[in-house]
Write a structure and sequence with these properties.
Blueprint: E1 3-16, E2 19-32, H1 38-69, H2 75-98, H3 103-130, H4 134-158, H5 164-203, H6 228-240, H7 246-255, H8 262-269, H9 276-283, H10 295-306, H11 312-323, H12 329-342
Antiparallel strand pairs: 1-2
Helix pairs in contact: 1-2, 1-3, 1-4, 2-3, 2-4, 3-4, 5-6, 6-7, 7-8, 10-11, 10-12, 11-12
Length: 357
């Protein structure tokens, strides 16, 4: 058995002056050497030889086909293009190795590689025939065939053979992962398209566009959470038309191709539904014998007390304190905007009264 010498260190006790300490000692040890793996050496050598043969093949085909094409085009163009004759079937060899455990993909790649190889061999043969030496053309064409065959055998030895059940399980896993990738890409495209469509319809007044149902799920009732696209469209329409009521916003969205009912619009913009103001008037508690006004009247009254520059949040807070009514800020802005349209121009004498009296 072959051995090799290895230098190692160890701790040994050393006694000096009656005291013992541990010191480091270097020593040599013979260890056995594993026998050379000749299978691995031969397979590595075969792989290197196949790579060298492939390079020779590329050079030979490039020179032959380049000389053939040089009769019609400049030489540098001819030799540049001729390199593609071998490159295509070499690419197929690489794809064949990648798909070595997928029989269906490997079969199609093998077929394409053989077809490309035949084209390259034919081009080399035609060059020899036109040069007046058909034998040289035939022998030169066989160089590409030898390189292809050598690489095929090398890949077969590198490839690990698998049983049929194992290949079937791997195919199932690849199909499942591929389906997940396809669904993810499709979902990403759907979300991007829906977002762009909602933005376009909310920003532009689209004319003569067919009505498209945004969602197939049941339409949410008033106060329930609406679908995201409808919510964004309603809020964008309210921002563009602050004086419009729920009916006007619904009509504008219908004109843009978005179908939504008035109750859903009221729930999203904070406007009370039909009959809600009357119910609040009758059901709200009476304070000091004075009936509670409607929400719109309470908002106008609070705004008159606070002044025309009062924030919507302050107006809503005053309405809640004085009348016990909860009104959203966006509804406050809508009511005040309507009242501003109805009121006459504010003079300098009226500014002290808030502009709403």
């Amino acid at each position: 058995m072959k051995t090799r010498t290895v230098r190692r260190t160890r701790q040994v006790p050393v006694t000096l002056g009656g005291r013992t300490r541990m010191g480091t000692q270097t020593y040599e040890e013979a260890v056995p050497v594993a026998p050379r793996d000749w299978d691995y050496v031969i397979l590595t050598g075969a792989t290197v030889a196949a790579a060298v043969l492939l390079a020779i093949c590329v050079v030979w085909t490039t020179a032959s086909v380049g000389g053939l094409l040089a009769h019609a085009v400049p030489a540098w163009v001819a030799y540049l293009v001729s390199g593609g004759f071998d490159l295509v079937w070499i690419i197929c060899l690489g794809l064949e190795w990648v798909a070595r455990y997928d029989d269906d993909r490997a079969a199609s790649v093998k077929k394409a590689g053989r077809m490309f190889l035949a084209i390259a061999m034919a081009a080399v043969g035609v060059h020899g025939w036109m040069a007046g030496n058909p034998a040289v053309g035939i022998v030169g064409a066989l160089v590409a065939l030898l390189a292809k065959g050598a690489w095929t055998q090398v890949m077969n030895h590198h490839k690990v053979p698998l049983s049929e059940p194992v290949r079937d399980v791997l195919a199932q896993e690849r199909a499942e992962l591929g389906l997940e990738l396809v669904l993810a890409a499709h979902q990403r495209q759907v979300l991007r398209t829906r977002g762009q469509l909602a933005a376009y319809r909310a920003a532009l007044a689209v004319q003569e566009e067919p009505t498209v149902e945004v969602s197939q799920v049941p339409r949410p009732g008033p106060g329930e959470r609406a679908e995201g696209t409808i919510r964004a469209a309603v809020l964008a329409a309210q921002a563009a038309l602050p004086d419009a009521d729920a009916a006007a916003i619904a009509a504008q969205l219908a004109h843009a191709g978005i179908t939504v009912d008035e109750d859903t619009v009221r729930a999203l913009i904070g406007e009370p539904a039909t009959g809600e103001a009357d119910d609040a008037h009758h059901d709200a508690p009476q304070v000091s014998g004075v009936p509670v006004p409607s929400k719109a009247a309470a908002i106008v009254e609070a705004a008159s007390r606070l002044g025309r520059d009062a924030a919507a949040a302050d107006v809503a807070a005053l309405v809640r304190r004085r009348h016990g009514l909860n009104v959203p800020e966006n509804y406050v802005r809508t009511v005040l905007s309507r009242e501003a349209k109805k009121a006459p121009p504010v003079t300098g004498r009226d500014q002290g009264n808030g502009g709403y009296a």
